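Need a sequence for this fold. Nothing fancy.
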């Protein structure tokens, strides 16, 4: 990634817990490239313990990586709109549930409020999908977001087309490159890298 400009990146995390380790690597990459990264935690990502780890440990590790406390509530996320302090918002992982609510204009979590607040400023939003129904019920939502101004996708593909034929997940290793392109109002191509 280019070091010519430093950005303030809102990094919104939802509950696709199996991707959280890769997400930490993506956050580290942004920080190492000189960007300020502010973590934004969905209700699920800040409260659920799973076989992939505890919510508390995940939050603490992101706070240590970024040097930021993070955003945990609707009230903390709402000023992203009027204060316009983010250059780009990343939603990674972005679950099918989050995509569906984003398309429907529902703002019932800090991540969705952050997205609504940021998108009103017509600055880039980068989506890194992770959903078992990308080629099912969420296919229409991916299409709608692909056709939404200032929304860009981290390239994604089917992660297990035999056992989970409708599942797709982003190539998180391309997140930094996608953010850089989005800051230039470009969608990185090709968008579909499949199969994994």
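Here you go.
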């Amino acid at each position: 990634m280019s070091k010519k400009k430093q950005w303030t990146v809102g990094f919104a995390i939802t509950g696709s817990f199996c991707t959280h380790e890769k997400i930490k690597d993506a956050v580290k990459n942004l920080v190492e490239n000189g960007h300020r990264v502010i973590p934004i935690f969905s209700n699920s990502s800040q409260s659920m313990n799973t076989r992939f780890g505890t919510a508390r440990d995940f939050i603490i590790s992101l706070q240590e990586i970024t040097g930021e406390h993070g955003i945990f509530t609707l009230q903390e996320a709402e000023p992203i709109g009027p204060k316009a302090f983010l250059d780009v918002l990343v939603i990674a992982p972005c679950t099918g549930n989050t995509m569906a609510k984003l398309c429907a204009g529902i703002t019932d979590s800090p991540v969705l409020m952050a997205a609504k607040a940021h998108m009103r400023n017509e600055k880039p939003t980068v989506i890194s999908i992770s959903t078992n129904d990308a080629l099912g019920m969420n296919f229409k939502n991916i299409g709608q977001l692909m056709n939404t101004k200032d929304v860009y996708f981290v390239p994604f593909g089917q992660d297990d087309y035999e056992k989970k034929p409708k599942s797709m997940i982003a190539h998180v290793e391309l997140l930094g490159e996608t953010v850089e392109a989005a800051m230039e109002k470009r969608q990185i191509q090709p968008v579909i890298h499949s199969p994994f």
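For context: Helices lie at 20-32, 55-66, 74-77, 80-83, 96-104, 110-119, 139-146, 175-183.
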